[in-house]
Amino acid sequence: MNRAVNNISEPPSGIQRGKKYRFTVKSAEEAIRIIRDRLGAEAKVLSVTQVDGQGLSRFLSSPKLEIVAMIPEPEPAPAPAQAQSEPEEEPSADPAERDLHQTMDEPVRRRLNNPFGEIPTGALKDQTLGIWHLLRKAGFADSLLQSLRYTTRDDRLETLPLNLALAEISQRLRQRYRDLDAKPLGNRIAFLGTPGVGKTTALCKRLAQDVFIAQLNVQVLKIDGENPNPDDGLSVFCDVLGVPLHRDPVPKIPQSDLLYLDLPGTSLRNDREWQTMRTRLDELAVDTRVLVVHACYETDLITSAYRLGEKMGATHVVMTHVDELSNVTKLWPYILKGGLTPYFLSMGQSITSDYTDDVLNELSGLTFPANLLS
């Protein structure tokens, strides 16, 4: 008993057992590093919550994680008989990482997942599993898998080690993406979508890029539907950037200026309002129409959104909330076969970051993490 107590390591200097410590960090990875460095390997995570900024700051900075952790008091050593009859569980190599993943909110935890996370690691070395079976188990649609086969039965892939076969599949997906007939962007760009998909946030992310990075002359136009289209956060953000925000009817805007149009979020079932907005876009000669899709929606809702995009003459697509998606494989058929040119991916609530227009590399990296291909 005394020997067990004496083997317990002392906490770092200035740290007390049983006392709760609070950290605010930018990511789960940073939290794990800070907990390990400041509290040591015995630290236990008590709670993880996502914290948004207040007022204007929530538009200008990424959400953060608030971590509460502590070093627990030492537990009494088990009785000898119990220690012999009940084998101890093998602890995680990193207790802080283990506890953090167990307690963090689901949307945060999903950012650390990958499509193959539920497949045992040993299966990646099991050639009898079969590459096509593995991809189907990971969530790839059968229609997409059939299009990736060069022959009815791709025997060469079946004989490769699975990590090499996955690398080959990754290359085939990349080639399919490069073969897409990408539509050009015009200087009149409308963002459209159903309520709650993050349409206005997506517009602001692009607006920030064009003003801060490209230093373009940009203006924004709000289109009203049956009900007024509120400008709330958008008007504040435009004021910060010095970008003019207009209401329809549109004033005279130089053709050289880039014009973004924000359409009201409208239900998929409201055909009359969608037709009214389609007519208005035609009158304004809007040549680029961006369908904004919530990546976490079920496939039937995403498919319905794509049908709406077809009715509205959509040319491009933006996927939002990608960081909250536990499995990105369902997005590949829409990206490759949906008929819309990928514009960018939106990850997170910040309207000045969490954005990438490198859709191919981002989606590939989320689908095939490097450790699966090594």
Write the layout of secondary structure elements.
Layout: H1 2-6, E1 20-25, H2 28-39, E2 44-51, H3 57-60, E3 64-70, H4 80-85, H5 95-103, H6 106-110, H7 131-138, H8 142-148, H9 155-159, H10 162-178, E4 188-192, H11 199-213, E5 218-222, H12 232-241, E6 245-247, E7 258-262, H13 271-283, E8 288-294, H14 299-311, E9 316-320, H15 331-337, E10 341-346, E11 355-356, H16 359-367, H17 370-373
What are the key terms here?
374 residues, alpha/beta, Rossmann fold, 3 domains, eight-stranded mixed sheet, three-stranded antiparallel sheet, 17 helices, 11 strands, 40% helix, 16% strand, disordered N terminus
Quick synopsis:
With 374 residues, this protein is of the alpha/beta class. The chain has 17 helices and eleven strands.
Describe the structure.
- With 374 residues, the protein is α/β, with parallel strands linked by helices.
- It folds into three domains: 2-110, no CATH class; 121-178; 188-373, P-loop containing nucleotide triphosphate hydrolases (Rossmann fold, 3-Layer(aba) Sandwich), CATH 3.40.50.
- The chain is 40% helix and 16% strand.
- The protein has 17 helices and eleven strands.
- It has an eight-stranded mixed beta sheet, sandwiched between helices. A three-stranded antiparallel beta sheet has the order 1-3-2.
- β10 and β11 (355-356) form a beta hairpin.
- The two termini are 46 Å apart.
